[in-house]
Amino acid sequence: MRDCDLYNNRPEVTVINGILIINHVIRADSGNYRLDFTDSWVLEELQVIVEAPIGSVEVSIICSSSGVMRASCSSEGDQLLYSWTLNGKMLVQGPMVRDTTIQLNEGTDGNISCSVKNHVSHAQKTIRVKPCPGLDLFCRFDQSDPCYAALGHKLNLLMVLDTSEYDLMLIKRTNNTQDDPVCRVKYGRMKECDLYNNRPEVTVINGTLIINHVIRADSGNYTLRLRLRHSDGTETSRDLQVIVEAPIGSVNVSISCSSNQSSVSCSSEGDQIVYNWTLNGIILEQGPMVRNTIIQLNETSAIGNISCSVKNNVSYGEKTISVKPCPVSVVFVLVWCFQMMVLLGLLGGFHIYMRHTSGKKREDQKAEDS
After folding, report:
1. Source organism's superkingdom (predicted)?
2. Mean pLDDT of 241-245
């Protein structure tokens, strides 16, 4: 190239056999170009559009309050187009700016894929989805296990199947005295209920106590006393423990690199969280989590899709990202190069010294022989 002010100070641009080669494209290379042939009137025009390629694709799953799943897909790049598929069947597609979210029904089960592309690259992430545990929870007073309720969501608590036969008294055992809060139910309606005063979101329908917005204070030990309406006053009682837990929030996963290891962090919010790390479907580690958990990966073998799934007794969340070997540190390369230079210098000096020493010995020997 001669007289080229178009690519001044850009040694990565050259011409070989009639082909202009730009080894490192920059944004400024976008534009409209015209090629003039000096020996003819022929003109050729071309528009060049520079796009940032697709970054890593990240997919996460969150369960909503009604048990409906929400899948989120995010990536980086220019002019992104996404497409969602479930078990190979197209769900939805369109343009994307950084992320896209799709709603799935509570029975969704299988492999969901988010594919992202533009004019210069393509990437895809597939994860396994399972039906969400619904946050609209149901418990019974005759169950032996505790009743778990999701904070801020709905709880259906079955007391009896036929309210016409019984007068009911629901007691929350706070001090195990006669002063404990009580709620009386007659003919399927709440009466004299100091247990749920000033809470219009609590009602009784067909023998089921319905709390439309669970609060922390709903945790506790309850006793239900049942008295047959046409009897001698004999009572039976049933006990139930209610435990309120905050559901899982969004799951965040990030990767950081050290000199020889990848460190992956997973964080979320909620009560009594249990985490599970998997790499390419193989379980790496699991256990209880308080806000976040970190796992160290071997740099050479940590390649593929790593997932952090988080759950408690009322909800579930998961996020999957791609992991690749950490880039080599520039400082490490410079130090290594310096060490090699020192080593080669020492070897060269030793070689020169040995040649000098051997040469001097020969001269001394010749002098003695003469």
Report:
1. Eukaryota
2. 94
